[in-house]
């Protein structure tokens, strides 16, 4: 089972990074819930994930992936360009970033059902010029 759940997570990051929202149908449940450290309100449902998270091409490099029972933990590096204004600053759009993140996924019925992510948003804000580097 752990090999299969690890593969689900790999496929998730491939689809997510490529902006391929349609590929998520086979990977996540329709009521998928995504919790992020920077937002107290989870994103709920496949359609919401499509609208809010699959917006541009981003490259994910998985550094570690560990699976046990119904959980998969992944540590990754995410590289891309800022897709939306950060801190309401339009000059941040298009700026390159490279940040680290960690996610825990819960698997149910052979699909990803829930995700908790922590990303280094301060690094993204600094790299984009939204906040000073020092």
Protein described:
The protein contains 3 helices and 6 strands, in the order H-E-E-H-E-E-E-E-H. The chain is of the alpha+beta class. The chain has one domain: Nuclear Transport Factor 2, Chain: A (Roll). A 6-stranded mixed beta sheet has the order 2-1-6-5-4-3. The N and C termini lie far apart (45 Å). The mean pLDDT is 87.
Order of helices and strands: HEEHEEEEH
Q: What is the strand tally?
A: 6
Assign the CATH topology: Nuclear Transport Factor 2, Chain: A
Portion of residues in helices?
Answer: 10-25%
> What fraction strand?
35-45%
Assigned CATH class: Alpha Beta
Quaternary state of the chains:
single chain
Order of the strands making up the biggest sheet = 2-1-6-5-4-3
Q: How does CATH name the architecture?
A: Roll
The first-to-last residue Cα distance is 45 Å
Describe the largest sheet. 6 strands, mixed
